[in-house]
Structures are given as structure tokens and as C-alpha cells.
């Protein structure tokens, strides 16, 4: 039984891995700040995947429930009711996040043979603290976890970029390497070739370039 009072049963079964066709598609994935993930594939198709709006709504409801709990007297009946409400809101957020990540990782591993992602490090987790912290942190690790096991089931290859790979410093058009840019710089013009670059899209293109 979990904290919100629901019961679960787990059953272990043996089954064959789902057979999927080999494809030529490759994709680079940048984990973003305002968007959850930005992808570019080898056909040049760019997609921005936003955190679902319901997730933000549920976060607000959770904060409200937490405030309500903090006002309840210790040991009282209302306090345990309020605690159950908090647990339910937590559960709702977890389920919504899981559903979002489940669909996204299924789509990516269904459609692509080679998938390039960043290596999660303290450095790129830090950039997420600027945003809704709880949405980002847990989401990124779970995203990579799901991507890895689904890729293995479907015979796809995951390439993790070196954690020092400067995906946001290189111009994806000409390869010119500019210096580090502070996080608030979202777009710029390459001083070498004049290409107009969007930070996240540029990073996903540079990650895609690592798929040989
Ligand atoms: Zn350039």
C-alpha cells in the first residue's frame, strides 16, 4: 500500500522483446530549460517537447495542499486528512510525469536507430535549478532510464556525449567554436558564418552530429 492508500500487486512474467524494424533514422536530444527536450533528427526535423501543462497545475495544487497541512495541529484528525491530500497530489504529479516520459521515450525509440543524448552531470542539472526544480530533476533521470531500457529492448543504440562536450559552444552550421555563453543567452549569430542559432536546437544538432 502506498502513502495515498492505494494497493498494488506486481506480477513477474517472461516474454520476448518486442520486434521492431531497423531504421536509418538518427536523433540528437538536448534536455532543455523552457522545453523538456529538443530533438533534431537526420532529416532535419526539429521538435520541442514541452512539459505537460497539467504538470504545472498539479504542482500548484501540491503547494496549496502542503500549506494547508502546515497549518493543521499536530496529532489532530484534520492533520492526517491533510497529509493524505499531500500524498495524493504527489502521486498525481508522479503519474503525469511518468505518462509523459513513457510516451516520449516510446516515440523516440520507435522511430530512431541511433539516439544521442547528453551525459547528465551536476553541471547540466544546475541549469535546471533556475526553473521548476522538482519537474526537471526527477524527469531527466527517469527520461534517460526509460530511454535506455526501451532502446535495449528494441535493439537501438544510445550514444552519450562526453560530459565536457561543448554542445552549446559549437556552431552546428560551420563548426566554429565560440566561448562559453551564460544561460540567459538563448540565441546568437555565429561570428564565423553568420548563421542564426537557437541555443537548444543548436545543441541538439551538435549532439546528432555525434551519431556516426
Ligand atoms: Zn557558424
UniProtKB/TrEMBL annotation:
Coiled-coil-forming residues are none
- Matches recorded under InterPro entries: Cas12f1-like_TNB, RNA-guided_DNA_endo/Transpos, Transposase
Task: Using the record's annotation, list all stretches that form the Probable transposase IS891/IS1136/IS1341 domain.
Answer: 11-128
* Keyword entries, A-Z: DNA recombination, DNA-binding, Transposition
Task: Supply the Pfam families for this chain.
Answer: Cas12f1-like_TNB, OrfB_IS605
Q: Which domain of life is it from?
A: Bacteria
In its keyword annotation, does this UniProt entry include Metal-binding?
Answer: no
Domain Cas12f1-like TNB: start-end pairs: 140-207
Q: Does the keyword DNA-binding apply?
A: yes
Region described as Disordered: spans on this chain = 66-88
Give the protein family: In the C-terminal section; belongs to the transposase 35 family. In the N-terminal section; belongs to the transposase 2 family.
Name the UniProt record assigns to this protein: Transposase
- Supply the source organism for this entry: Alkalibacterium indicireducens
Amino acid at each position: 500500500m502506498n502513502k495515498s492508500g492505494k494497493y498494488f500487486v506486481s506480477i513477474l512474467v517472461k516474454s520476448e522483446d518486442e520486434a521492431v524494424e531497423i531504421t536509418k533514422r538518427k536523433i540528437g536530444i538536448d534536455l532543455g530549460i523552457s522545453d523538456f527536450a529538443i530533438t533534431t533528427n537526420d532529416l532535419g526535423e526539429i521538435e520541442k517537447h514541452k512539459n505537460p501543462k497539467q504538470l504545472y497545475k498539479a504542482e500548484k495544487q501540491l503547494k496549496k495542499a502542503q500549506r494547508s497541512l502546515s497549518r493543521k495541529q499536530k496529532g489532530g484528525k484534520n492533520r492526517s486528512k491533510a497529509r493524505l491530500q499531500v500524498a495524493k497530489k504527489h502521486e498525481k504529479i508522479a503519474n503525469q510525469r511518468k505518462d509523459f516520459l513513457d510516451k516520449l521515450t516510446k516515440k523516440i525509440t520507435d522511430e530512431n536507430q541511433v539516439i544521442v543524448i547528453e551525459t547528465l552531470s551536476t553541471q547540466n542539472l544546475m541549469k535546471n535549478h533556475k526553473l521548476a526544480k522538482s519537474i526537471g530533476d526527477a524527469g531527466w533521470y527517469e527520461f534517460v532510464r526509460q530511454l535506455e531500457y526501451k532502446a535495449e529492448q528494441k535493439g537501438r543504440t544510445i550514444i552519450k556525449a562526453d560530459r565536457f562536450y561543448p554542445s552549446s559552444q559549437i556552431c552546428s552550421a560551420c563548426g566554429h567554436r565560440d566561448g562559453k555563453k551564460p544561460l540567459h543567452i538563448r540565441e546568437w549569430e555565429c561570428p564565423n558564418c553568420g548563421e542564426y542559432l537557437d541555443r537548444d536546437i543548436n545543441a541538439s544538432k551538435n549532439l546528432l552530429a555525434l551519431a556516426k
